What does this fold into?
Amino acid sequence: MSELVRIRVPTHAQPPPTAPADASIPSAASTDPDAPAVYLETFGCQMNEADTALIAGQLTGAGYRRVDDPAAADVILVNTCAIREKAEDRVWGRTSQLLRHRAAKPDLVIGITGCMAEHLREKVAARAPYIRVVAGPDSYRQIAAMVGRARAGERVVDVTLDKAEVYEGLDGIPDDDGVSGQVTIQRGCDKFCSFCVVPFTRGRERAVPPREVLRAVRSLVARGYGEVMLLGQTVNSYRHEDVDFAALLRAVAEVDGVRRIRFTSPYPKDVSDALVRAMAELPQVMPQLHLPLQAGSDAVLERMRRGYTRAEFLDIVTRVRTAIPDISLSTDLMVGFCGETDEDHAQTIEMMRTIRFDQAYMFRYSDRGITHAARRLVDDVPDAVKGARLQEVIALQEEHTRAAHAAHVGRRVEVLVGGLARRNDRLVGRSEHNYNVLLPLGCGRAGELIPAVVRESTGHSLVAEPMSPPAAAAAP
Ligand code: SF4
It folds into this structure.
């Protein structure tokens, strides 16, 4: 999974609808003005967003109140990403920026959690001695106690990886639109792609038991969420005893009230026939699949240890498109990996032209200290060449994304409304294919499914008209 150059425009709709009360869910905000205030900030992927929700749930349960202004906080935690060097640099920059709040509050505790905490455990003390809490991805059950000790003056570090920790029974408090909710079904990764730090920072693959996944899904539905996003580093490699991912998908689809199911991020080699069948048969599973290609040349794929060839990847695409002809495909692409020649790069371009992904996350390779590639391969593609290749890939993907959007003009879509668009002048939601769709104000509320016809494509969004006339003066 990657937090990369995004062609897709993220949906950040607001405000969330009012959630029905559920006694099993921790209260989202303490109203006690004397309760210690915590500010949480997230870098990286959706797994990290889900982990921030988990941390928020733990701290709220321990009496903290969450604030959205770091200046008002007694505790600042930055949930970090280590997937690329740039992501790490941004975290260093951000934590030193946040340090200025200590001028007004000398007792302010600043901490980091997540992948970077795990990856750089020793370096944090030397590089940023002001960081008082360092918590790895398997330490969140203890996060409130760790923060408490830091507030009492200790420097607290826990980056132990726990092969069994799946946070069973813990509900998070997400900072989302209240419409699309995330459920982590798997933690860690066993694939060990040669460029990736995740198996080192998040540990070995563990499946959340199906009963816990279903409990979390029911909890989301009870809070009014219409869409469930199942999360895992290689989500479709999921297996718990005799339950594989296809079986889990079928079980989730049976939960009363689940209208839409998505999942990310799949591992191409584990796209089984059973999964493709389940996707084709279950109306709740949206016609959208993220298939991270990474590179189009067999030589590079082998050095990346991705476990498939270009022919095998094309076969997966054919199987999926045969079963679900209208499916929207997105991908991850990495340029400039160790030893990548002009010919290798041309093969990536050729794969893009053959498959024509609807959307892509694109980035250049950066050397991550502890990986196989960093230790055994030579990062020999000059920066300028990486940059030029990335620009070429981005330009081509822009063309394909625009064409995919334009092909939707005139089509009927069903939009799950998330809330107000950024400029507050329209509603924004997601189509079945996960396109960002803008609708006129007043045609529905957050969480409603609105049938609409696409009238226009702006390149990154679709503009649609509802099929029935807008209700008079309905609030978003
Ligand atoms: S599948 Fe590969 S790229 Fe994805 S998280 Fe696992 S090691 Fe990293």
